[in-house]
Each structure stands twice: as structure tokens, then as C-alpha cells.
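Weekly structure sync, notes
Attendees: PL (lead), two postdocs, one rotation student
Agenda item 3: pending single-chain targets
PL asked that the sequence for the first pending target be pasted directly into the notes so everyone works from the same version. It is reproduced below exactly as submitted, 396 residues in total.
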Amino acid sequence: MRTSVSEWLGIRGLEFAVPLALLSGALALCWTLPAALIPIEALAHLGSAQKVSVLFFAVSIVGVVGAIFIPLIVHKVGRRRLVALGIGVSLVAGALLSIEAATPLIAGTTARVFGFLCIDVVLEIVIMERIPRRNLARFEAVRMFCMGLGLIVGPWLGAWLASTAGYWSPYALLITVVAFVGLYIFRSRLRFCLADPPRRDETPNPFRFIRRFCQQPRLRLAWILSFARSAWWTMFFIYSPIYCVQSGLGTQSAGAILSAASAALLLAPLFGRLAMRFGVRLVLAVGYCSTGLVTILVAVVADSPWAGVTLLLASAVCAAIIDAIGNALFLRAARASERAEMTAVFTTYREVAQLGPPGLFALLLNVFTLPAVFVVSGASMVLMTYFTRYIPKSFR
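Predicted structure, written out during the meeting:
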């Protein structure tokens, strides 16, 4: 039974596939446990949504700058120490966030971004080294399935623990899981994956490898497609709850739609199988086009709340097609000698995606009503369908 499941998932014979996927799921859980609590606590301490926006804008800037300089840190301290640093900073972040005060909140939110970034960059490098290129699309689908479990459980569990056991409890769980992740990494066979490659005498120059990244068409393509996907999810998590509340469905419906949307990631192995059968290029084209068109339809039926919510959930299922295999483009395109540098640049798509859409939509909503957000976001996803034509047809 175990063999047949591994074979169906496309990871049979991949020694580190299961632990790397489960590790990604555990980190996703840790990341999302405080996801619903931080904005609420920030609003309570800072006093206005505008100040909360400034906080998250500043934190995103820290994330972008931190990602760019990660290769320099790797060069100086090595992978093992960088992972240890990330785990240590994440533990400190959990402790700071458990304190109900403005200064620890700001410091903890910033430390949370940097700590997880350190771990994530090394994890991406290990995946590129240990998973053969021909299996990357299949593995990425399995990894997204594991991450989907964390994304579904995390926000609800964090809010439930805070309301029943106390505000500190989700952060205590976060600290526990992060500590377990650290022990597992350094006590299991994964520790051998953290060995540093032959050290180069040349110190990494952030400006040089940004330029090097931009000179490679496939890396640029992977970044653009990933940025569009992440920007769409940023829109979804901000404006879907607003739509629910403005439509009279209530805050509980707003929370339910986010959990239900995350559940679509559980279909990732199925989408991975489709990519194996029909190719990544076709599956991603269908994913971007369908996500965009369904999102635009939300604006068309915006006056009918339940129809709008149904289409929002349908658009999340379509977006899960992209999530299942989207990062495989980068994992396959990055060269072995440049993994750390290119990974650092690539991961900036998430921070940039959290900066751009809220600013654009804030300007847009000064003139138009909320449905305009769905039109613009949907149109941008349809536009990405054009860029999928540059993905090699043979990529499976």
C-alpha cells in the first residue's frame, strides 16, 4: 500500500522527498498559527488600519532586504548555522509575540519574517540538490499538499487556542513545533544535506547576483509567474473577507471562506498527476486562465453574495492548480553553482506581492467600488496565460 501511494504521488525512490515535504508542512503550520492574530493585535495597539498597513509594509521591506543578503550570510556562516540562526530567531519571535504590547509585537513580527526566511532559503536549496529535476513537479505537488494541511489548520487553531486557552497558547505551540523541527533537522539524516559545497573565495555581491538573475530568461519567467500567483492570494486574503462583510454574510463567513480556500491545496497531488500526464505548460496555462476568468465573474455577480462566494471558492480551486506545480519552474531552472544566490532573489516575489496589490487597490478603490478589485486581479491572471507559452512543452 505504501509503495503504491508513493508511486502514485511520483516520489517512489526519492529518499528525502517525504521528510522534506513534511518539514515544509510543519513550517507552514508555524507560519499560519499567528496569521489571524497579528493583524488584530496590531490594530488594537496601533489604533488604525492605516498604521497596521505601515507596519506590514515595513516588515515586507525587511523581508525583501533580508532575502537579498541571505547568500552573504550563507557565505559567512554556512548552511547549518543559518538554519540554526533561523530557528533561534523564530523561537525569539514566538516569545515576543506572546507578549501583549506594541513594541514586542513589532519586534516579533519582524523577527518572524527573518527567521522563517533563513530556514526557507536553505530548504529550497536542499530540495534542488536532493530531488532530481525530472521529479521536481511531482515532488512540489506533494509538498504543497503537506503545506496545505498547515495552511488550513494553522489560522483556525491559532485563533481557537487564543480564545480558549489564552493569548499566549498559540505562540507556545509555535515555539514547540519550531523546536521540534530544529531537533529533527539536526538529529535526522537531513543534517547531512546541510553540508556546505566547496567554499568560494569570492564574497557574494547582492547587486551582482540580482543582475545575474535578471539575465536568465527562465528565472525571470519563474519569478513573474510566482509573483502573479502570490499577488492574487494577497488580494484573496484581504478582499474576500471584506466582500463577505460588506455583502452582509458576517465575519464567520469571512473566516470560513479563507479556510475553505486553503483546503483546495489538498488537491495538489491530483494536479501534479495532471502535470505528469499533460505537461506543466498546459496545466499552468489552464490554471492561470481559469483563475482569472472566474475571479472576473465574481465582479459580475457581486450583488448576489452567495453566488460571489461560490465563485471565489471556485477561483481558489483554480489557483491551487498553479500552487501545486508553480515553484517547480524555478527549482528546475536554477543552476547548481548559483542555488543560494538565485533562491534568495527568487523568494522576494512573496514580499513584493505583499507590497504591490494593497497599494494599487487602495488607489483603485478611491474611484471604483470593491468589484473593481476582482476585475483587475482576474485580468492580471489571464495575462499570465500568455507568459506560460515560454515554458518548454517537454517539462513534466
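Discussion points:
- The radius of gyration is 20 Å.
- Residues 217-246 form the longest helix (30 residues).
Action: rotation student to compare against the earlier draft before next sync.
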